[in-house]
Amino acid sequence: MRKLFVWLALGAAMVAKAEVPTPPRLVVVVMVDELGAEQLFLWQKKFEKGGFARLLNQGMIYPNVMLNSTSLYEGTSVASFYTGATPSVHGVVSRQWFDRFSQRTIDVLQGYSQEPVNDSVVPYRNTSLLCSTLGDELRRVYPGKSQVRAIGLSPHIITWAKGNNPDGYYVLDSQTGMMRNGSKTHLPQWVHDFNGKGFADLYRQREWGPLNDINDYYASKFRNQGQSRNFLYKLNASPGYGHMVHSPYGNLMMRDFAVAMLLNENLGRDAYPDLLTVSFSLKPGVVRNAGQYDAEVEDMMLRLDREMTGLVGFLDEVLGLDKVLVVLTGAFNRSALPTDNIQADIPTGAFNGRKALSLLNLYFMAKHGQGKWVQAYHDGSFYLNEKLIADKKISMDEMRREAADLLIQMSGVARAYTYDQLMNESSALVGGVVYQSFHAKRSGDVLIELEPGWGEELDNGEVVPRPQLNRQVPVVFFGASVPHGIVHRPCNVVDVAPTISSFLQIAMPNGNVGSPMTEVFGR
What we know:
Blueprint: H1 2-19, E1 26-33, H2 37-42, H3 52-58, E2 60-66, H4 74-83, H5 87-90, E3 96-99, E4 104-107, H6 134-141, E5 148-152, H7 155-162, E6 169-172, E7 179-181, H8 189-196, H9 199-204, E8 207-208, E9 233-234, H10 242-245, H11 248-264, E10 274-281, H12 295-318, E11 324-332, H13 338-343, E12 349-351, H14 353-368, E13 374-378, E14 381-384, H15 386-391, H16 396-407, E15 413-418, H17 419-424, H18 432-437, E16 446-450, E17 454-457, E18 463-465, E19 472-479, E20 485-486, E21 491-492, H19 496-504
Parallel strand pairs: 1-10, 1-11, 2-20, 2-21, 5-6, 5-10, 12-17
Antiparallel strand pairs: 2-19, 3-4, 6-7, 8-9, 11-19, 13-14, 14-16, 15-16, 17-18
Helix pairs in contact: 4-7, 11-12
Keywords: Signal
GO molecular function, one term: alkaline phosphatase activity
Protein name: Type I phosphodiesterase/nucleotide pyrophosphatase
């Protein structure tokens, strides 16, 4: 009887221990711009053992995590990742929107400033964010103890990773080649030391060619017989450091800076958990509109795999992977380019929002008289002139319906939703992703959704893929006793923040609408 009691007591202790694990000392989010699950799987056999392959072979893989935004702006989905909220809650609906109160266009990072945001503008502010992030909640639980850091190539990604606190994030400046603090003019000495090593100048003088035989690249296997294509780019061919920053050498600098930060700021070295985001990219700056499977993209992926081998190996050696949670994901996974669709005989086309605005305004002038009836177009949203419509004593609801009816007749437009529809009907009756992307104070009077395969022509003439409703990114959890497996059930990007919150045993962000991905806990 006494032995039975002892065994029961031991069993109860083991269950209790399993239910309340020790939080990881460090969470490292590796966010790769334009990473898709198909790229991870397609090139898996080419990876080194210690990089992406190690995560895929040992981690918990969610290959198809749905994004909840129709925006072209990558920061919208990044904000959802860190807040667990949809754009309708966190407010980052686009890079720009028209503010009805001030009658001015607002830039998501610069407020009312009309200056374009590039890699050299400081400070980067995220006053547009309406709720807390993972980092905010971590700091709230361990004020002055837990560190939240974010480093990367673009402020449009790392601004949302760092949370509402202005400290602790760095951008690789494409004009100077230096790491700059996005919120302070003062840099720690170790950052000055890193900049002083002159890596950017060294890498800028290099040429970038394929790592392997060009015929071994995926794109080469599908060229017509007799066709060949190689590439070799001079990274100093343009002023500044832009080509170097958006090349494999930019990712190499990010890896080295991440290691320097881990060492100099002692991340993961005490009893208080820290959060580090490292942003890499698969977008080659020397190639305009590179396709997902182009040789340059594959080459960046294979070289980034080497940087991942170094980063993961460093974390294992210095901290131990049992004390570190690594989360790999894509910051943005665009759809196929219209040119790719043409080659594959897939229906496609290019929608121009500015031209649609002009046509809409001409239609209203012909019907209701002279005036600027449509004030702005931003990222799928049309903003009508409320004052003019009120002065003419026309129903706003009627004008929105008229606009939607005209827009739906334009080539490439699949659906058009009015402000009133999105305010008064549930997501079951209105397109779910469009409904989740709608914010009453920031979205337009009419929102459009394009046909699958269609792109959008920007002001500079560039045609970019318009996000589709089934846009997905991979998420891989690795380390911190995460079991190995692959999960194909439906998951949403808003589920990641509550999952990491559960690992850290802290409150979920205050706008969270997601649920923990329980498979990573062995359940």
